[in-house]
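Final report, Chapter 2: Outcomes

The project's central promise was a pipeline that accepts a single protein chain and returns its three-dimensional structure in a standardized token representation, suitable for archiving and comparison. That pipeline is now operational. To close this chapter, we reproduce one record exactly as it appears in the project archive, with the input sequence first and the structure output second.
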Amino acid sequence: RFEPRAYLRNNYAPPRGDLSSLDGVGPWKLRCLAQTFATGEVSGHTLIDIGSGPTIYQLLSACTHFEDITMTDFLEVNRQELRLWLRDEPGAFDWSTYSQHVCLIEGKGEPWQEKERQLRARVKRVLHIDVHQPQPLGAGSLAPLPADALVSAFCLEAVSPDLASFQRALDHITTLLRPGGHLLLIGALEESWYLAGEARLVVVPMCKEEVMAALVRSGYEVRDLRTYVMPACLQTGVDDVKGIFFAWAQKKVGV
């Protein structure tokens, strides 16, 4: 019963989708990603976005650094929503304010239309994924493996009933990443539920320390871990999220 458009309205249209205030959650997430990619360390040929949902913003800074991007989701309704935007079809969700904001903070003078064109060109496939399976993309995956980098935003904690399940899911997706490769992980802090239309979904509540411990257990060196406290004006009744985390982690060689 997950409704992609309701989820997008709740989280990526105003007030949460208002990018005019630099203190907002949208600018914070985009800034974390842009600054990390600007280091030049997170680059390569292949990138997999784990549990894309119906959103593309998490790849706007990534697409400059990777030529082959795979987007994934468990739900076909979300994969359909992604294809609408990737094909630039009428009725697709409008991400232009996000594209404009990313171009602004990256400061390269790139037109936002070119940013979107590049992302569309570099997403090569949209695949089914199940992070609870030891082979999340299934046997004989169409994605080139192992990937040079993984991105995942609001997926693992939102599909895991408890911390042990989150840890296993993290272990599973880590098998898709080459040793020395990078994972950029964004997720909710201290959230237990969220709405997407008629669907009310359960989330495992996590704190910063639990995120850090899970990454270390899965064989990562944590390069950066930032948190954002959700202000009262953005607590809109569509979830009980208290904050957001951003983690940059590098898979240790030999793991």
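Archive annotation: Strands lie at 46-50, 68-73, 123-128, 147-153, 177-189, 193-196, 199-202, 220-229, 243-251.
This record, like all others produced under the grant, will remain available to the consortium after the project formally closes.
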